[in-house]
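Ticket #4471: structure output looks truncated?

Reporter: J.K.
Steps to reproduce: submitted the chain below (241 residues) through the standard prediction queue, then opened the result file.
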Amino acid sequence: MPSASFACVIVDDNEINRLTLEHLIELTPQLSLEASLPGSLEALEYFRQGGKADLLLLDIEMPHLSGLELARLLPQPAPEVIMVTTHRDFAVDAFEVQAADYLVKPVDLPRFTQAIQRVLERRKQRTSPPPALSPAMQDRELFVKVGTKMIRLDFDDVLFIEAMSTYSVLVTATQKHIVYMSLKVLTERLPFTHFVRVHRSYIVNTQRINAIEDNMLQMGKYQVPVGKSYQEEFYQQLRGL
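Returned output as attached by the reporter:
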């Protein structure tokens, strides 16, 4: 990535914290500072006026509108977000808004550099096509983005896929993989005919259904409901298998 090509915006109501982050950006060749703003409302106005950002360094606790609330209101495609806060208690909340990293103040250069490298790698993975699969693998496996990595997943092992807000959870008999794709997008992209939408929140692998009772599918140790609006089409598909 060329020098100073990753546009950054700082949002923090503490001036000292903003100055610290501005200095860290100056020390990082890949970054350029586009704006340093004292609050979430100013950040919303920045984006409304057409301001751009590849990366948002975002304080969590701010008046009027918290950083977490701002992250949920960002225009799409949203910039990468690194949460910066004085408390460690917001790590789960940062994960829920798909933040790339979570920094605890005071932020030092080594930890800041580590977070930036994670963001750059994440952006690279998002913009690079996944490796091509051999014809023999295409009917079973796909590369999917899990966390910050692209992993090759054998979909024969997937029991069902569950919607969780703007991301999805791929459930196997032994693991759960969080994928940063909505269920709608997965439905459109999955090339497997045996993966069927049975509910607004579920896609199931029909080859892994153990039993059906009262519109509930037994999938290993899990039970998955068949939504009323999906029942007719689903049972027709089952009869055709």
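Triage note (M.O.): checked the attachment and the full token line is present. Confidence is low (pLDDT under 50) at residues 130-139.
Status: closed, working as intended.
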